[in-house]
Amino acid sequence: MIITSLLDTDLYKFTMMQVVLHHFPAAQVEYRFKCRNAGVDLTPYVDEIREEVAQLCQVRFTPDELQYLRELRFIKSDFVDFLDLFHLNEKYVTIAPAAPGSGEIEITIRGPWLHTILFEVPLLAIVNEVYFRRTQPQPDWSEGRKRLEDKLALLKMPAHADCVIADYGSRRRFSRDWQEEVLQTMRRVLGPQLAGSSNVHFARTHNLVPLGTMAHEYLQACQALGPRLRDSQVFALEVWAKEYRGDLGIALSDTYGFDAFLRDFDLYFCKLFDGVRHDSGDPIAWGERMLAHYAAGRVDPQGKTLIFSDSLDIPRVIELYERFGGRCRLAFGVGTNLTNDLGYTPLQIVIKMTRCNGQPVAKLSDTPEKTMCDDPAYLAYLRQVFGIKAPA
């Protein structure tokens, strides 16, 4: 059994779920799975994935886990009471081979947002672990440990003593046990340079800080839930601020492209939110523009945090640290490069929200290949509304 705790997911799933409970409890959504690796055949593993999902749906929150959540100051008591009754239901998930010979599988999650939001991360972790335990039955752990030690040695150099990173690697990890070993090694070697983990289960069991705020799905859903499409990003940020009142103040900047974000992220939001997170496009150009945006509003960037989390490896982290260190607060979320680097090609798999309340929703990423929508007409309309040119 791969998933043995419902805390074995990213913190932002719970923070978004609390917003859903309090503001959008009737929302209906649809998510779809995509594997971006060419030539990877996942169809032999469909039955095993189904079996793991069935077992996942038998897991419940334990009293100790609920008490841990209750002690997080931004988690409200009625939400924990709801989680005490909660379980995932496999009737909301469909897993099947796609067209014969394609090697692709179709995974669709469809149902109430409140009851489906926790599927994404454990389901991706299941697909990863099933795939790798079948294709690499005797992993080269020594190679993985050597690679990890070499990376951490770069961070331990005196010039990088203030460079802080976090584990963001749950969804694309090689396995649950390997992620735990990576975290234990990072904690031993890095000490205070390890900021924490997005994984709530490991944060709890290893006394780390759980990290995360919002994901793209939240801002996407607001395309259908807000009063007007053009105002959906502003609506999402305002609802978030209303729910958390100063906690969890990191805004995600690329759901509609960075230009549209800067237009919406006015002086009010610059002062209200603690910082912003980068997840697509050129990180250096993004960071320079974000600092300039703060400066233009006479907001001191020294009091704001830039979080970089897009496909990072340690050399890239160090490059960004050297570029922006001392100019603002910095944080780095590293995922696949830490939790799935044993010498095998990692799976580039995602589960993205594609509909909310029957309406198409989409992310207009600054990295075009990350855009995912099942309705080209809606995508064109979204670009028109937010003034975003289609990629060449």
Automatic annotation (TrEMBL):
Domain of life the protein comes from? Bacteria
Enzyme class of the recorded protein, top EC level: ligase
Q: Does the keyword Transferase apply?
A: yes
Q: Where is the Nicotinate phosphoribosyltransferase N-terminal domain?
A: 7-128
Q: List GO terms (cellular component aspect).
A: cytosol
Q: Which residue numbers delimit the Nicotinate/nicotinamide phosphoribosyltransferase domain? A: 165-388
Q: Which reaction does it catalyse?
A: 5-phospho-alpha-D-ribose 1-diphosphate + nicotinate + ATP + H2O = nicotinate beta-D-ribonucleotide + ADP + phosphate + diphosphate
Q: Which GO terms describe its biological process?
A: NAD+ biosynthetic process via the salvage pathway
The answer to whether the entry has keyword Acetylation is no
Could you cite one Gene Ontology molecular function of this protein?
A: nicotinate phosphoribosyltransferase activity
E.C. numbers: 6.3.4.21
Which residues are annotated as modified residue Phosphohistidine in the UniProt record?
H216
Keywords in alphabetical order: Glycosyltransferase, Ligase, Phosphoprotein, Pyridine nucleotide biosynthesis, Transferase
Q: Which function does this protein serve?
A: Catalyzes the synthesis of beta-nicotinate D-ribonucleotide from nicotinate and 5-phospho-D-ribose 1-phosphate at the expense of ATP.
HAMAP family from the entry?
NAPRTase
User: What protein name applies here?
Assistant: Nicotinate phosphoribosyltransferase
Organism of derivation: Cupriavidus basilensis
